[in-house]
Please model this.
Amino acid sequence: MIYINDVYGKWNVEKVLENYEDISNSMDVQANRWIELFNDRTFNSDGYPFGKLSGSFSFDEDKGILTLEDQSNRNGRITWKVNFEGNNLVFTGIGKLSIYKFYLTRNRH
Model:
């Protein structure tokens, strides 16, 4: 089980898989692609290909499901299965994003 307190903070995207293939270079993960989850259940993110996003989120600790609600409604609702692999927080897409897996590391700055 992952607790909500485990996911708060700023996370940098380190690697992206599409259908198990590493597409990190084409997703330009080294160009400061990140997400920050705040304890008031809001988030900010930036980076290719989604650009700047902000909004609210919900987190189901029992199921490890993170749902982002983009306030601009450009991307609507985005749902991820969340777990840890070592020190990486891993977002695995659900539904139309199920082909994607994002590996994130906590920003220590």
Observations:
- Helices lie at 4-7.
- The radius of gyration is 13 Å.
- Residues 4 and 73 are 24 Å apart (CA to CA).
